[in-house]
Amino acid sequence: MSTSQSVNELFGLDDLIDDDERAIADTVRELGRKRLRPHVAEWFESGELPVREVAAELGEIGVFGMHLDGYGCAGTSATSYGLACLELEAVDSGLRSFVSVQGSLSMFAIRAFGSEEQREEWLPRMARGEALGCFGLTEPDFGSNPAGMRTSAKRDGDDWVLNGSKMWITNGSVADVAVVWARTDLEEGSRGVRGFVVPTNTPGFSASEITKKLSLRASVTAELVLEDVRLPASAMLPGVEGLKGPLSCLNEARFGIVFGAVGAARDCLETALSYADDREVFDKSLSGYQLTQAKLADMAVELGKAHLLALHLGRRKDAGTLRPEQISLGKLNNVREAIAIARECRTILGANGITLEYPVIRHANNLESVLTYEGTSEMHQLMIGKALTGKDAFR
Questions:
Q1: How far is Cα 167 from Cα 98, in angstroms, rounded to an integer?
Q2: Mind listing the pLDDT tens digit of every residue in the chain (395 residues)?
Q3: CATH no. for residue 174?
Q4: Domain range for residue 97?
Q5: Residue 374 annotated as catalytic
Q6: Looking at the DSSP assignment, which residues form a beta bridge with residue 139?
Q7: Short-list 60, 43, 51, CA closest to 176
Q8: Are 104 and 248 in contact (CB under 8 A)?
Q9: The one catalytic residue among 45, 87, 374, 378
């Protein structure tokens, strides 16, 4: 009698990670199993996430900024961080996004470009989950083209005064600190876009939650409004000028998505495999039919390839050789394949596939957002196209 294998066993994926990486993945998986999975469908249905409670759980196991060094951060490898993202998104994309925005956007910006004072003030508390961050780059009229941003920062004596708005900001209405990117006055000696560390209790800063979402419902999304927000000169991130700053942060977050999408797809496929094995159709297990096995085989091949690509990119990042266009390869392929797997798994579950009793439609809905945030598929295609041809086709 034959025995079933998981995709990891089929591809020998577990042989490609070391004991420390496996221990980190197991820790995150166990937290997901015990503390997150039992509630995530309810959070998705209600559109409410108990942010502080979840932050405390995630901070306790050290996943916030885990790939950063010092200031209370674990200093793990990039691959270990990727595997943690995989396990988080296997529960829900919103949870991986929560960790990604906290660690790869907000904390990374402060760690990479902040002053020592800014790092000491924020990073230890953020690593513990006691302080939450958000990342203000996208604007209502400027998503794929951040160079068009209208949010401004003007000098007034020794201070900066910020005005503008940011849209689709994860954690925006629950954050204690916002890393906000704004266009500065060229004629006053500053150069283009600069980042600012903005405590969210600063007068003139407000955030309103975006509701009625049908995707990423177990995640807080907000619009930020800055009306004459006055900040001291020390609020500016001193370590970077121009769009290089926010774009490097986005590459950090995209790297996590490369792994995270694999987690969502894996959870869908595991669900479909279990369901097909239990479901009887015409007095026979659904998993015993050729058409079902063809679907399962095709999905397993794409999932395994996506996982291999993620691990390959993780090793390159750890070696310091990962390039932006390679992150685009991973984000484009793995999210595209993950959403295709989620949709195909839904067909195996039939009508049961559209209920929150199973995670498949929830993953599919979430992946609709993952497909277009942190760079749309089209933008990543153009990044790859530029790498192949040497020609910039963005305009």
A1: 16
A2: 456 789 999 999 999 999 999 999 999 999 999 999 999 999 999 999 999 999 999 999 999 999 999 999 999 999 999 999 999 999 999 999 999 999 999 999 999 999 999 999 999 999 999 999 999 999 998 877 887 889 999 999 999 999 999 999 999 999 999 999 999 975 444 458 999 999 999 999 999 999 999 999 999 999 999 999 999 999 999 999 988 899 999 999 999 999 999 999 999 999 999 999 999 999 999 999 999 999 999 999 999 999 999 999 999 999 999 999 999 999 999 999 999 999 999 999 999 999 999 999 999 999 999 999 988 999 999 999 999 999 999 87
A3: 2.40.110.10
A4: 7-132
A5: yes
A6: 142
A7: 51
A8: no
A9: 374
The number of beta carbons lying within 10 Å of the beta carbon of residue 18 is 10
pTM higher than the cut 0.70:
yes
CA atoms of 384 and 392, how far apart (whole Å) = 10
The pair of three-digit structure tokens given for residue 26, joined into one six-digit string: 């197991």
Same domain, 227 and 249: no
Can you state the percent helix, strand and coil of the chain, rounding each to 5? 55, 15, 25
Which residues have C-beta within 8 Å of that of residue 92, sequence separation ≥ 6?
Answer: 36, 40, 43, 44, 218, 359, 362, 363, 366
How many domains are contained in the chain?
3
Residue 85, sorted as left (phi over 0), alpha (psi -120 to 50) or beta, turns out to be alpha
- Of 168, 218, 223, 208, the closest CA to residue 46 belongs to 218
269 and 259 co-located in one domain: yes
Best CA proximity match to 312, nearest among 79, 40, 98, 72? 79
What's the Rg (C-alpha) of the chain? 21
- Structure tokens belonging to residue 184: 């500065």
